[in-house]
Amino acid sequence: MRTAYVADTGVFVRCGGPDNEKFQRLRTAVRRADVTLTVPRRVYEELGGDPAVDEYPSGDIPASTGFEEGWIGVAEELDYANPLVSTVMDDACRVIASETGRDEDCIEKADTALVGLAAQLLDGGEAETVVLLTTDKPAGRAAERLLPEHGFDGGSNTGTSDDRIWKP
Amino acid sequence: MAKSPTRSDHPPIQHLQTVVDVLETPALARIYAHILDDGPVTVADIVKDLDAPQGTAYDYVEKLETAGLVEKVGGKRPYEYDADPVSITLTTDGASRTITPALIAAVARREDDGDVDTYVDRHGLDSLARALDYAVEYVDGEVNSRIAARELDISPLEAEIVLQALEPIAEAYAVDE
């Protein structure tokens, strides 16, 4: 059974730099399980997109090390032409707006990329199970609510509120 | 005839000046936050708990006491100090900000957390106060770093870093406020 692990920006911030024990544990766990952490293209851009964060101790995010070592990979572009992907992302926009008390205009496509990627991987058969790792609770709740609506079972927690699992 | 105002041992402007000092001096903020969280404590407790230089601890506690931010309790030596939560609301041109114990705890965290320190260096205390408001919502799942980034006009990665850095304070003070 193929499981996709989709990771969000906050996970890498949480794990810290290469000297951080949390980072080392993440790398060991991912390698031991012989899997790859997949990040949406948008997350990849967020991780490398702001040179100013180099001033922060936590700005030293070793995602590039993970990409070079091969245990973090960038997902393919989201296929907006796929009606399931675009519908799930539109719906996620509404859920995130409602969860955060914002207008839908304030929610950008990037905010729904995580949920869109989960739908795309499940729909295209690239994964039979998707595990979402995120600190973005509104997006996590959007995934929990919407993926089952589109025929993917689950939303079961694995112990921490940041981990969610879906199956077709 | 105008009445003389009631005399107070802790005149308001001096009180405000000390609060400003607290906001500008993370080591002073750390001592005030510690007395607030763990008081009553003696200066010796503060020196031990915070690993603070003894002379600095005595000077800072005296400064906080003079301004009425902390007070002696009990009356027996060694004196113990306790604090009431500060709450000062400043209004300028329609913008309002309340200085709370959580904000002072965030300033105190500059001593221990380079991410908070860098954020204040880059964006200032008003932005720290706003980021702390977002951190409370972030903990409750009512906002994410991407929305916060747009509204604070910073990058999503910087928002995620500062929200995670402020998360422990948002959690610790959420019940109090």
Short note summarizing the structure:
Chain A is an alpha/beta fold. Helix content of chain A is 45%, strand content 15%. In chain A, strands 3-2-1-4-6-5 form a six-stranded mixed β-sheet.
Please describe what this structure looks like:
In chain A, 45% of the residues lie in helices and 15% in strands. With 168 residues, chain A is α/β, with parallel strands linked by helices. Chain A is globular and about 40 Å long. Chain B is mainly alpha-helical and 177 residues long. In chain B, α5 runs antiparallel to α6 and α5 packs across α8. The longest helix of chain B has 26 residues. The chains are: A alpha/beta (168), B mainly alpha (177). At the A-B interface, α1, α5 and α7 of A face α6, α7 and α8 of B.
List the main descriptive attributes of the protein structure presented here.
heterodimer; A: 168 residues; alpha/beta; 6-stranded mixed beta sheet; 7 helices; 15% strand; B: 177 residues; mainly alpha
